[in-house]
C-alpha cells in the first residue's frame, strides 16, 4: 500500500514524457501561448509568419509562401518529422500533414 502512490506518480510522469515527444496530429492547431514580442498575434509578413511557426516548436522552415487569402504555408520540421504547416491571418499555426 505504501508503494502504490509513488508507483502511480512514476507511471503518470512516464506517460506525460512519452506524450510530450509525440508530434501533433495533422490538422492540430498550435498557437503559441503568447505571441513573440512585437507581434500582435497575427502573421502579416513573412518574418512574422516564420516567428509564429518557430514559436510553435517547428524548425528548418522552408518554402514559406503567402496564399491569396493572406495566410502563409511552409514546410517545417518538428520532432525530426518534416511536415507542411499553415499560419492563418490570426497567427494560428496548423500542421497540414
In words, what does this structure look like?
The chain is of the alpha+beta class. The protein has one domain. It has 2 helices and 4 strands, in the order H-H-E-E-E-E. The chain has helices at residues 4-20, 46-55; strands at residues 59-66, 72-78, 81-87, 93-95. A 4-stranded antiparallel beta sheet has the order 1-2-3-4, covered by helices on one side. The protein is globular and about 50 Å long. It starts with a helix and ends with a strand.
Summarize the structure.
By secondary structure, the chain is of the alpha+beta class. It contains two helices and four strands.
Please tally the β strands and state the result: 4
The value of Rg in angstroms is 17 Å
For the residues shown, what is the average pLDDT? Answer: 76
* Helix and strand run: HHEEEE
Supply the number of helical segments.
Answer: 2
Biggest sheet statistics: 4 strands, antiparallel
Q: Shape, please?
A: globular
- Poorly predicted runs of 5 or more residues: 33-40
Q: Fraction of residues in helices?
A: 25-40%
Chain oligomer state = single chain
- Order of strands across the main sheet: 1-2-3-4
Structural class: alpha+beta
Amino acid at each position: 500500500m505504501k508503494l502504490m502512490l509513488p508507483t502511480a506518480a512514476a507511471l503518470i510522469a512516464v506517460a506525460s514524457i512519452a506524450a510530450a515527444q509525440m508530434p501533433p496530429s495533422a490538422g492540430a492547431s498550435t498557437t503559441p501561448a503568447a505571441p513573440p514580442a512585437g507581434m500582435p498575434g497575427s502573421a502579416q509578413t513573412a518574418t512574422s509568419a516564420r516567428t509564429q511557426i518557430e514559436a510553435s516548436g517547428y524548425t528548418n522552415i522552408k518554402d514559406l509562401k503567402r496564399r491569396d487569402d493572406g495566410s502563409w504555408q511552409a514546410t517545417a520540421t518538428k520532432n525530426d518529422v518534416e511536415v507542411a504547416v499553415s499560419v492563418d491571418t490570426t497567427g494560428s499555426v496548423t500542421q497540414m500533414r
